[in-house]
Amino acid sequence: MKSKIIVARPIFEETLDRLREHFDVTDNQADVAWTKTSWTQALAQHAGALTTGSDPVDAEVLKACPSLKAVANMAVGYNNFDVPAMTAKGVQASNTPDVLTETTADFGFALLMATARRIAESEHYLRRGEWTQWRYDMFAGAEVHGSTIGILGMGRIGQGIARRAAHGFGMKVIYHNRSRLSAESEAECKATYVSKEGLLKTADHVMLVLPYSAASHHTIGAAELSQMKPSATLVNIARGGIVDDAALALALREKRIAAAGLDVFEGEPKVHPDLLTVPNVVLTPHIASSSIPTRLAMANLAADNLISYFTQGKSITPLNTVTA
Ligand code: 8YV
């Protein structure tokens, strides 16, 4: 008999077809919204699940799901998982690293460019029909090439951004991370390790690419924003909660920093109302990994993680070690 798995959110039909070869699949192609209770009740009926970053698998959920064996997150970030609790219950956790690195780094750069060069703000102005004549200072923004980028969180995506900055735009790259890169990786990214404070004070563009955890909550708050240059920009492609969105909206309104580009938000899909009314911010709905080939690669890796666990006892890109 095939094991029962649930796919929490809509997904590519070809990924579902692949899963159906191995499992009895409950899909959610209709995109019925879960409450925590309805999600927990549904999950409890299954041995495996393919989740997205919005579907919680925490201690409370796990308590109600004694038959659960494996959960594959279609994301590299996994702050929706309580991995120690999953390990304690013998549930294999997996994520989708590597397949999204370059696409997400591309988007980080796109958001940096849009923010520094005021693309969204000027596009809205044009659409409103306010463009009547050329002016020397019209939407004059910050320089990108040759400027200094400060990358907070120097994992795979951070390094992808560093390579683009150093080799494509001749930028000076400084970074701060829990641990320093090897000399070889630093050379490849032309990146210099600095303190967090040094980074905030020096960078023309601050890029956030660190994972969310209790320790990284509000890594950028009022105090950190006040250390940045008034001409600086801030880009967050990491996770909501790493930035104090209320403090950021205030700093943007008071022009204490020049501009921000945000793909992730505290409490998303809700967005802090003050961010919606300040002009100098570019807002996108958590789409940094969203190219069609990359999303397909993520979905298929998540599916393969489930297939591998149920056929061979171990996912391909596991986050924990459990005995099947
Ligand atoms: C996902 C992401 O699209 O991989 C991540 O960590 O943030 C995005 O690529 C999102 O989490 C949906 O699962």
Describe this structure in words.
- There is one protein chain.
- This protein has two domains: 3-97 and 292-312, NAD(P)-binding Rossmann-like Domain (Rossmann fold), CATH 3.40.50.720; 101-283, NAD(P)-binding Rossmann-like Domain (Rossmann fold), CATH 3.40.50.
- The chain is built from 13 helices and twelve strands.
- It has helices spanning 13-22, 36-43, 59-63, 83-88, 101-116, 119-127, 156-169, 183-189, 196-202, 222-227, 245-253, 273-277, 292-312; strands spanning 3-7, 23-26, 48-51, 70-73, 92-94, 148-152, 172-176, 191-193, 205-208, 233-236, 259-262, 281-283.
- The protein has a seven-stranded parallel sheet, sandwiched between helices. Strands 2-1-3-4-5 form a five-stranded parallel sheet.
- The chain binds 2-keto-D-gluconic acid.
- 2-keto-D-gluconic acid binds next to loops.
Bound molecules: 2-keto-D-gluconic acid
Strand content: 5-15%
Tell me the strand order in the biggest sheet: 8-7-6-9-10-11-12
Provide the CATH topology of the largest domain.
Answer: Rossmann fold
- The run of helices and strands is EHEHEHEHEHHEHEHEHEHEHEHEH
List keywords for this structure.
Rossmann fold, seven-stranded parallel β-sheet, single chain, 324 residues, five-stranded parallel β-sheet, 15% strand
